Amino acid sequence: MAARVSTHSARWFAAGMLVFVAGAGLVDKAALAQETGLSEEMKSFLESPGQQATGAGAHKQKDPHASLSPDKLVQVALQHLDEGRASLALETLNEALGKFPNDTMLLSVRSSMFLQNQQASLALADLNRAVELNPHDPILLTNRAQAYRQFGRNDDARRDLDSAIELDQKFVAAYFNRGSLHFEAEKYDLALVDFNRCVELEPEVPAAYFNRASTHEALGDRNNAVKDLQHFLTLSPEASWAQVAEDLLKQWQSENS
Known about the structure:
The structure is a single chain. By secondary structure, the chain is mainly alpha-helical. The chain is built from 15 helices and no strands. The model is unreliable at 1-58 (pLDDT under 50).
């Protein structure tokens, strides 16, 4: 009988993997904000003490975004988000969508913010609209799968992930999330296939090793589970997840002794 995965492992699977916008890769606000492409005037506005202090409503007198394109508005919103001004980031996206209601990049980024804030209904509305406008974007389908999962609509989520993978057979986030769904459904053999693919495509991403370790453990393969967790720890994961991995290794080692 397959060993049961630990509570710690299940928590990672529930988190899944979210994608912001086309070309941006996995959610990493700091990385996304490094290359903003903003004018010096806009950077000065964003960095001014008054702007940081006032937050929402800082655009009352003059709108510095009036002439910006949708992609520049996304960059402004991401910079606000990275610097801790979430309300202003959302205000920027709302204003931008008032001007460009059919821009899928703006819809995608706002939906990502909604998902991170556990506002699944709002996220799903944005993603349904975005997918309607661009049904062949694997990123939109993968993010919509995350929204579906928050409603327990796992069959719909899996269909979107299947479609995303058909559209882009090297899209790691789709494999990762589909593997998570398979794991939750106790389809461990299928989960292992997807996590193997993640490791094959991006061998330096820690998350896939952690999830694959949990899958090996669920299949009763403790040796490979330990190897994957040990490798996970060499890839400099977040401190909290490094601690989870270390605790699991201690647990498994004590059970084997």
